[in-house]
Specification:
By secondary structure, the chain is an alpha+beta fold. It has three domains: about 170 residues, FAD/NAD(P)-binding domain; about 100 residues, no CATH class; about 120 residues, Polyamine Oxidase, Chain A, domain 2 (Alpha-Beta Complex). The protein contains 19 helices and 23 strands. The strands form seven sheets. The chain has a seven-stranded mixed beta sheet. A five-stranded parallel beta sheet has the order 11-2-1-15-23, covered by helices on one side. Helix 1 runs parallel beside helix 18, helix 6 packs across helix 7 and helix 13 crosses helix 16. It starts with 6 loop residues before the first strand and ends in a 12-residue tail after the last helix.
Length: about 525
């Protein structure tokens, strides 16, 4: 595609914005200019370094059912030489031989590498561990107790025999798929920690998007299948996302992927303006013509003209920035959109109190993250960074963990000082038996705004807002906050790819962009 002297203004240097810039440089002559208001690359998919120990905000598995996304990632960072791949990766029902000598690298010698990691996630409830998803096993029966198992079974059968006909909210969604008792035990507490409101006040759309095809029946089938066949395919296109057993992960965390991508963009002639914020967006009829930005250091304001505009900034802020007459109803919907914020407390430890027992003695447990279902603590999830990548920690004899707290900016948790948050985190993990206070060596606190676009507030009217914004022909909303849609990073990337393809093919509708992450195969046809 030849579009000489054309400019694309891209708001946000997260996965969506960086992918859009990369794709434009690879496939067109359009020159991208990325405007990023922070001083870091990658959005929430960044890596933070604290005293040589690296933190992944929220945990980012590099896995996608989209072949082009997997290939895209591996084009940036090749895989390690690992026994897990056995020299062969299988996807789309085809075996592909990997030449370990020239395509796989040794992470001990090279930094630009994707590790192949085993996935292990568990639920912590009743001060005990449960596999996620719940499987039929001796341990599960013992941990739950016979009466709970009986009630769960009866409740699940009841939900299949007499399902809720019209799923009005997330609670209805969960009950229809798992039964009321299983929902109350393993979904209700954690979900309400994440969102801060009852499941009955959240749209069922969240469940349809995030959980999709997972059900008790599929989990049982997966368990029995695993008794006689192990899935050794890191592309795992036939496995529900929540059942993934392997994934790719950059040596130094997710930020490494996006920092490398940013370097490539700059080397190809793209520009990235860091610590510049969009404060105004001007339009003419149905087209955006320029944006006004302010340099956060010099306070100098300037304008950037463009031919195409990509926005991954929160929709609420986008609408506020539009210098045009906006219908009152649209403004009200935009202002009513809700976001959930996030705090990570990093703790460096001598050891965890909970251990993995084997014939060689007690070792560090293998979990990537643990869902904390205990209702008597506020912490929602726990990451063990050693198990994401051993290169995330400066001293491999120590344990580096992240406690995740979900909150709203300005609420009681958000307003706690760093020391208050650290004391809370240590107290809660000690209380539920995961650590001992005496083993804490170091700590830090990271706050992240607008981590999760919420499926309540004025969300039920969002389609009206979407249709209004889609009338701007050269404006493309992409990414998680850009679309107010709970996308994973691969979905965010796909929205950017679809937008670029629309420009190339002169497609005016935005329907294909909004359709990303509504079907399980993510639009892969073959």
């Amino acid at each position: 595609m030849k579009e000489m002297d054309k400019i694309a203004i891209i708001i946000g240097a997260g996965p969506a914005g960086l992918t859009a810039a990369f794709e434009l440089l690879e496939k067109t002559d359009i020159k991208p200019i990325i405007i990023e208001k922070s001083n870091y690359i990658g959005g929430i998919s960044r890596t933070i370094d604290y005293n040589g120990n690296k933190i992944d905000i929220g945990g980012h598995r590099f896995f996608s059912k989209s072949t082009k996304i997997m290939d895209w990632w591996l084009n940036i960072l090749p895989t390690e030489n690992s026994d897990l791949s056995q020299g062969t990766m299988t996807y789309q029902n085809k075996n592909i031989n990997i030449q370990l000598d020239d395509k796989n690298v040794d992470p001990e010698k090279e930094d630009k590498v994707m590790l192949i990691r085993k996935r292990k996630s568990r639920i912590y409830f009743l001060r005990k561990f449960f596999n996620y998803p719940i499987s039929i096993s001796k341990d599960t029966l013992i941990n739950l107790g016979i009466m709970r198992v009986l009630f769960i079974t009866i409740s699940y059968i009841s939900s299949k025999v007499k399902p809720i006909k019209s799923e009005k909210n997330l609670e209805d969604f969960f009950i229809n798929r798992f039964g009321k008792k299983l929902y109350e035990i393993f979904f209700k507490s954690y979900t309400e920690k994440v969102w801060g409101i009852p499941c009955r006040d959240i749209s069922a759309d969240w469940g349809r998007q995030r959980i999709k095809g997972l059900s008790v029946t599929k989990a049982i089938k997966h368990f029995f299948k695993g008794l006689y066949k192990k899935e050794n395919d890191i592309f795992q296109k036939k496995i529900e996302t929540s059942l993934i057993e392997q994934f790719l992960y950059p040596k130094f965390g997710p930020g490494q992927m996006w920092e490398e991508t940013a370097k490539i963009i700059k080397s190809k002639g793209g520009r990235i303006l860091m610590e510049n914020e969009v404060i105004g967006i001007n339009s003419n009829d149905n087209n955006i013509i320029k944006v006004e930005i302010i340099d956060k250091h010099t306070k100098k304001k300037s304008y950037l003209k463009g031919d195409y505009f990509f926005s991954s900034m929160p929709v609420k802020h986008l609408v506020r920035s539009l210098n045009t007459d906006i219908p009152k109803e649209i403004l009200n919907i935009s202002e009513g959109l809700v976001y959930r914020d996030f705090i990570t407390v990093g703790l460096l430890l001598n050891e965890l109190k909970v251990k993995h027992n084997n014939e060689r003695g007690n070792k560090l447990i293998k979990d990537n993250w643990i869902y904390i279902q205990e209702p008597d603590v506020l912490v929602g999830r726990l990451q063990i960074f050693n198990n994401w990548s051993p290169y995330m920690i400066s001293d491999r004899n120590k344990v580096w963990i992240g406690l995740e707290y979900f909150c709203n900016k300005g609420d009681k948790i958000w307003n706690k000082s760093d020391m208050e948050m650290i004391r809370l985190a240590i107290f809660e993990l000690d209380k539920i038996g995961i650590i001992s206070k005496k083993d804490v060596i170091d700590s830090t606190v990271i706050k992240m705004e607008k981590t999760y676009p919420a499926y309540f507030g004025t969300y039920k009217y969002f389609n009206k807002l979407r249709k209004y914004l889609d009338t701007f022909e050269n404006l493309f909303l992409v990414g998680r906050n850009g679309m107010h849609k709970y996308n994973n990073q691969d979905h965010s990337m796909l929205t950017a790819m679809e937008a670029v393809n629309n420009i190339i093919n002169k497609i005016t509708t935005k329907d294909n962009i909004w359709a990303v992450n509504t079907e399980q195969e993510y639009h892969e046809k073959n």
